[in-house]
Inverse folding.
């Protein structure tokens, strides 16, 4: 849940402007300092909220002129501070603000008054990228910029459990690796050209997706699945670049498209006899082999991951009675739009 909006202020510092006939006619600063009021919409577990956001970067423009260039704003207690302090234009000229959290290096385009984020790389999947836009802002009555952040990425979680069947002996499922297959990890993010207020729905867009790779969610000591869905995630990868998932196609032992791969072994829990895999199963090594769950098959509910939404996949692994085939009992829960 959201905490109350944090009220912020900035101490006024003096500033000056050139008084020169050869200087272009630009708005002169007023005596009112620009300050920020920051909120982050409610969201699913594990993401940044109003109470946990610590910093952000600001770009601002008056017309086509750069006004603030990658200025870092930090929270200190209940106050947001930045330096040097900026002042509203004296002639009430409009200012467009673009904010990104967490703060990022100065590789955002500033050649035009729309500082988009080119070549964003999602290396670890642990960063919740936020953005906010405030268009045509003026000093008004308070001089505050009410920054309402939105989530640029998709939250993706995979919860694994064993499939229980009271009519057969219980099974024991051991896993030692979970991996996302064929996921785009790089893209360009374009800011919306509208204010991201609490009552609007304008969003940024991702383009030029690339760097298709496999993402390891867990790789380590063998773990035993229980009847309780559990997330096995060593590096903390839960945020992905929003994308249309590549169509999942299996051709013999070859897999194309987007999949979840689970390296596991299955035993009869009473006798200890291994039920799966055999030495001829895909990727067999030391009693473990690979199982694949398609992320975008004909019956998939979600062929794409959208920005600002969270997806939870529940995967139950078991051996159905009278069959040596592995059964995936899969549900996908969409938490809903973060903007709600």
């Amino acid at each position: 849940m959201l905490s109350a909006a944090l009220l912020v202020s900035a101490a006024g510092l003096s500033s000056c402007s050139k008084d020169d006939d050869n200087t272009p006619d630009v708005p002169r600063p007023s005596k009112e300092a620009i300050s920020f009021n920051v909120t982050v919409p409610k969201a699913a577990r594990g993401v940044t909220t109003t109470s946990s956001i610590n910093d952000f970067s600001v770009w601002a423009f008056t017309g086509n002129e750069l006004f603030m260039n990658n200025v870092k704003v930090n929270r200190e207690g209940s106050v947001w501070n930045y330096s040097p302090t900026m002042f509203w234009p004296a002639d009430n000229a409009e200012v467009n603000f673009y904010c990104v959290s967490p703060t990022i290096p100065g590789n955002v385009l500033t050649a035009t008054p729309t500082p988009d984020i080119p070549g964003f790389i999602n290396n670890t999947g642990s960063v919740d990228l936020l953005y906010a836009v405030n268009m045509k802002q003026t000093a008004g009555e308070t001089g505050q910029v009410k920054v309402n952040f939105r989530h640029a990425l998709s939250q993706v979680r995979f919860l694994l459990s064993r499939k229980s069947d009271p009519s057969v002996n219980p099974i024991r499922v051991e896993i030692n690796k979970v991996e996302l297959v064929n996921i785009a990890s790089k893209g360009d993010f374009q800011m919306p050209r509208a204010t991201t207020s609490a009552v609007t729905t304008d969003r940024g867009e991702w383009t030029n997706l690339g760097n298709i790779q496999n993402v390891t969610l867990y790789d380590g000591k063998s773990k035993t699945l229980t009847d309780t869905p559990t997330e096995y995630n060593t590096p903390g990868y839960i945020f992905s670049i929003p994308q249309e998932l590549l169509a999942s196609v299996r051709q013999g032992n070859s897999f194309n498209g987007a999949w979840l791969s689970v390296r596991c072994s299955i035993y009869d829990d009473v006798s200890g006899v291994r039920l799966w895999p055999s030495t001829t199963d895909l990727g067999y090594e030391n009693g473990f082999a690979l199982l694949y769950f398609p992320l975008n098959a004909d019956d998939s509910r979600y062929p794409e991951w959208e920005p600002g939404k969270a997806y939870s996949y529940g995967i139950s692994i078991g051996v159905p009675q009278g069959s040596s085939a592995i059964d995936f009992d899969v549900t996908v829960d969409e938490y809903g739009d973060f903007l709600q």
Notes: Residues 1-28, 320-329 have pLDDT under 50 and may be disordered. DSSP finds no helices and 25 strands in the chain.
